[in-house]
Design brief:
The chain is α+β, with helices and mostly antiparallel strands and 186 residues long. It contains four helices and eleven strands. The strands form two sheets. A nine-stranded antiparallel sheet has the order 2-3-4-1-5-10-9-8-7, covered by helices on one side. Strands 6-11 form a two-stranded antiparallel ribbon. Helix content is 26%, strand content 34%. It is elongated and about 60 Å long.
């Protein structure tokens, strides 16, 4: 029995941000001892927050990268929370953070098994080399995403900049697989 809609779960939203000013990372580590910073190994300072549970890399340029958000909204909230905590801790920050979503990673299940070899022949911009990797790699142009598709019907979608693009990508792929009769339902 075909499943009407794929099950999709946003796993990670990566967002970049800038406050357009230089930051003294030594001062931040002194005021926030729970941060992690090893400048000999990596120039970014790691600032973790519990709600929303994320990690934000902060660079002396004022640029930031936030990972771990489960939605676009959560990523923006996390960056704003970090900036707010820095201000409360006595770090002088003049501007609000400008946040841009860079990548959304989602997992999904199409609800049926897939003939990967046939799918690789039928789907344009697809690669399937089972000796190298057990999934089919499908590059979608609109929206611009990459989907790793497995015989079980499970998938990983990456490269989206908006949550709506994740849903559109997965649903487009699901519809194409259905139309081409590449789905097997138990």
């Amino acid at each position: 029995m075909p499943q009407t809609k794929p099950i999709i779960s946003i796993e990670n939203v990566v967002a970049s941000a800038t406050i357009d000013q230089r930051l003294d990372l030594t001062e931040i580590t002194e005021k926030f001892p729970e941060t992690e910073w090893n400048p000999e190994q990596f120039p970014g300072l790691v600032f973790r927050i519990k709600s929303p549970k994320t990690a934000t890399l902060i660079f002396s340029s004022g640029k930031m990268v936030c990972t771990g958000g489960k939605s676009e909204e959560m990523a923006v909230k996390a960056v704003n929370s970090v900036v707010s905590q820095l201000k409360k801790g006595g770090i002088k920050i003049k501007n609000n953070a400008v946040v841009t979503v860079q990548n959304i990673v989602a997992s999904g299940n199409l609800g049926g098994k897939i003939h990967l070899e046939q799918a690789a022949r039928v789907l344009p911009r697809s690669m399937y080399e089972p000796e190298q990797f057990p999934g089919l790699i499908h590059r979608m142009l609109d929206p611009k995403t990459v989907i790793l598709l497995f015989a079980s019907g499970k998938l990983v979608c990456t490269g989206a900049k908006k949550e709506s693009d994740v849903y559109r990508s997965v649903n487009n792929l699901h519809n194409t697989l259905e139309d081409k009769k590449l789905m097997i339902y138990d």
